Amino acid sequence: MSFYNTYQKYKEFDFEDFLEKVTEEDVLRAISKDRINEYDFLALLSAKAEKHLEAMAVKARQLTLQHFGKVIFLFTPMYLANYCVNQCAYCSFNITNKISRKKLNLEEVEEEARIISSTGLRHILILTGESRKETPVSYIKECVEVLKKYFRSISIEVYPLETEEYAELVASGVDGITLFQEVYSEETYEAVHLGGPKRNHRFRLDAPERACIASMRSVGIGALLGLDDWRREAFFTGLHADYLQNQYNDTEISVSLPRIRPHVGSFQPKCDVSDKNLVQVMLAIRLFMPRTGITISTRERPDFRDNLIGLGVTKMSAGVSTEVGGHASDEKTEGQFDISDNRDVETMKNIIYGKGYQPVFKDWQMI
Predict the structure, then answer these.
(1) Where are the beta strands (DSSP E) in the chain?
(2) Residue 360: partners with Cβ closer than 8 Å, 6 or more residues away
């Protein structure tokens, strides 16, 4: 089994024709259903559905409260290294960019962990550039051993691994991964990944499933919105999440909705994704997948993020730095991308309380 089979089924689908033929009755019918199919989901991503975002929001709020309650899970990323062998047109870590490269030693990892944990956070997401030479699995495991002293849940966002490598990390204490496909369109994928192992679309596409097979507790996916038509990309993201959720019932599947942000380099996104577009994607995904977690990162503006609380989002980052050692080190490096929301954990906690929701600092206890 592979999601690639599903992708192939819809790769040549005439999205433009389908979306043009969607009626308002189709949209309202989809909103009223208890369980929608993939064509209803696509209808909710259509231009016709833009007139019905309020009704979608009401339904999304009901479903989110039903499955998650009034809670927002908080986490923060920790960048371990920015060495990378890929040439991704949209990323500051691109091997051809002349940026300062750094990799934390274990003492620096511990200092970062100490500072982050002092905020109360107990869920950490560790990230590296894609370089097996500089950040091999053995190095990631060593970092995890340090981090286990400070955090109850450790997730990774690193290069795609083989099934046995994911299993090795699970055994060491990793309980979740985040892995963005970046863009599902194979043609666009090839155009924006100019060199390096990341050019292998299929290997990356199947990585979340390999993590599920390795008994990873939580698996998060997403597309970098702006690289290609956002409606098509959101559709494939939803199908991918639905496939994983149906195949691996014991794995918690979540979706992130990142938009391209300024970075080192001159790449300009192919498609504009407005705030309204992003809200529509989030609402449509919630109606399609009521049990799926939805993450909104600090790529988004503070006021925009605040207004999304209660509309489907279940997880948010806080106190974020995209620099290697950005919480403790005086040696600054370029961040992977610019963030829009610089608020610290305490501020975010109070914002969430102010919205009538409960901030959750620990959503899982490792045995």
Answers:
(1) 71-79, 123-127, 153-157, 176-182, 218-223, 252-256, 293-296, 315-317, 358-360
(2) 71, 72, 73, 74
**Using CB atoms within 10 A of its CB, is residue 201 exposed (0-12), middle (13-18) or buried (19+)?**
buried
- pTM of this prediction exceeds 0.90: yes
CA 93 – CA 87 distance, rounded (Å): 8
Lookup result for tokens 């961040």: 335
189 contact partners, CB below 8 Å, separation of at least 6: 182, 183, 201
DSSP state, residue 51: G
Integer Cα distance of 324 and 194 in angstroms: 24
Smallest CA-to-CA distance from 267 within 87, 82, 86, 84 is with 87
pLDDT tens-digit series, residues 285-328 = 999 999 999 999 888 999 999 999 999 999 999 998 888 988 77
Nearest residue to 111 (alpha-carbon basis) of 63, 68, 143, 73: 143
In contact, 361 and 71? CB cutoff 8 Å: no
Interatomic CA distance for residues 217 and 171, integer angstroms:
12
Residue 351 one-letter amino acid: I
Query: Which residues have C-beta within 8 Å of that of residue 125, sequence separation ≥ 6?
Result: 75, 76, 77, 78, 155, 156, 157, 176, 178, 317
Half-sphere exposure at residue 252, Cβ-oriented, CA atoms within 13 angstroms: 14
Q: Is 79 helix (H, G, I), strand (E, B) or coil?
A: strand
Do β-strands 315-317 and 71-79 pair in parallel, antiparallel, or remain unpaired?
parallel
The predicted structure's pLDDT at residue 334: 58
Q: What Å distances lie between residue 325 and 94, 133, 180, 268, CA to CA?
A: 19, 19, 22, 28
Query: How many whole angstroms separate alpha carbon 335 and alpha carbon 299?
Result: 12
Other CB atoms closer than 10 Å to residue 342's CB: what's the count? 12
Question: 338: helix, coil or strand?
Answer: coil
